[in-house]
Amino acid sequence: MTAPASSSESAGLAGRAAHDLHRREGAGFAFIIGCATAFAFITPFSRISYDSGSTPLMIVTLRTGAFVLVALAMLLARRQKLRLSRHGLLSSLWLSLTAYGMSVGYLSSVAFIPVSLAVLILYTSPLLAGLMSAITGRERLTLGKSAALALAFIGLAVALGPTFDALDWRGIAWALAAAFSVASTSVFGGRAIAQDPPLTMNFFTNLWLLPLVLLLGPFTGSWGLPGSAIGGLAAAGAVSCYITGYMLWFLALQRITGMQVAMMMNIEPVVTIAFAVLVLGEHLSLIQYGGVVLTILALMAFTLGSRRRRRA
CB of 207 within 8 A of CB of 153? Predict the structure, then answer.
């Protein structure tokens, strides 16, 4: 007969469980920060590539095809089976649709409205993710979280500095569709990939995404190769950042909540602005710098508040 555990043993087990949770969350936040940073570099790298003759559709096609090849090579090297559970197969199909919705929505929106406004609308996704989480009962949207989400959005609006003189409802609708796709993946993606290895899920998601891009892409743009060595290197950089960011995103979804993932992804436009200032020579006003600071502070408040409540 097994003796009941003493209070000290129970406390030790609870302490180890809390420590493991802390490490798991810490890794999740590290992964999503790396993901947001990698994704942030895609935009400026793509801009350099576009200036040499490439097009958004070409970058999307290259990065999706390259990801499939890299993921396949890694799976074969690890001798992992190219097979998903029934749940994983259905989830990968759904994730490929949301990824396509984000790409097509964003690419189409910039045909009707300024890029800065499209980016701003795209990054309403944390607000949408928070509402989705609250409505579905996955996570409680407290007053503090609501305030942090609102402050982050205000900070982004100030930092991105969009011009509102050319508002076309079609561009707004496309950008909102992209934001909804990102929010849906952030909220429901964690459960969708829970039963299958992240790399395998990544591979199949992009495998289903590739024919969608090839078949439907011509309706939203045209293909064009970069016409210079710098443009080619920039395109390669955009593709590499996509592969890295996408893998880190799935790893993060397995360790932290969907709302935390969506909130931390607000780092992406902030890093993009910093890259544009330091590398591309763009300049920000003092007010825009204030927006960057406000966004970072809101992210810190949201994240620290969530971790304290989980430890309590």
Answer: no
SS3 state at 9 = helix
To 10 degrees, what angle do helices 229-253 and 169-192 make? 50
Residue 303 Ramachandran class (φ > 0 left, ψ -120 to 50 alpha, else beta): alpha
Q: How many CB atoms lie within 10 A of CB 310?
A: 13
- Residue corresponding to tokens 């990939």: 193
3-state helix/strand/coil string of 289-303 = HHHHHHHHHHHHHHH
Q: Token pair for residue 164? A: 């509102």
Closest to 265 in 3D by CA, of 284, 250, 249 = 249
**36: closest CA among 199, 274, 217?**
274
Q: Which of 4-13, 96-105, 111-120, 199-208 has the highest mean pLDDT?
A: 199-208
- The model's pLDDT over 6-27, given as tens digits with 9 standing for 90+, comes to 566 566 666 666 666 678 888 8
C-alpha span between 99 and 97 (Å, rounded): 5
**Which pTM value belongs to this model?**
0.69
Rg (Cα) of the chain, in Å, rounded?
21
* Nearest partner of 118 among 189, 168, 61, judged by Cα: 168
